[in-house]
Nephrocystin 3-like N-terminal domain-containing protein (Rhizopogon vinicolor AM-OR11-026), 157 residues
Amino acid sequence: AWEKLSRATVKGAEYNSRQRLPHPKCLEGTRVGLLNHIYWLLDNPKKSQLIWLHGMAGVGKSAVAFTVAERMKGLKINEQTSSEKRLAGTFFFSRKYANRCMTGNLFATLVYQLACNFPSIKDNVTRAIRENPAILDLDTSLEDQMETLFLQPLRVL
């Protein structure tokens, strides 16, 4: 099941993929207000952990997202853990790449990264795939994929 999930992931969608070189990043001293607001939201457990960046092409959404992802990758979930990072996963869409302009493998890619960054859920994710291997098919609804790949394994925690 783990190997099947690995094959279903979209290579190049991760924030630090070589496919995305040069990595867009906020220059020192820019977007300070926006970045601080995002960090505040992410540090506040009572706030939503989902942040939607939107705007016209070229306004710097990818640079902001990369900068935030890079910071979260460097932070641990808490002081007691040595392997679990605060970055759960990333998916950067792109019109240039066929597998990154569609949502078919979005959840497979994210849950693979989630299980790599949080090994405590890997067994639950692979169990969910063994019980329903078709969940990784491109035509499976996003709602079903989110429920099976994310919510069910996380509820076990």
Remarks:
- The chain has one domain: 1-155.
- Residues 12 and 157 are 29 Å apart (CA to CA).
- Residues 1-155 form one domain.
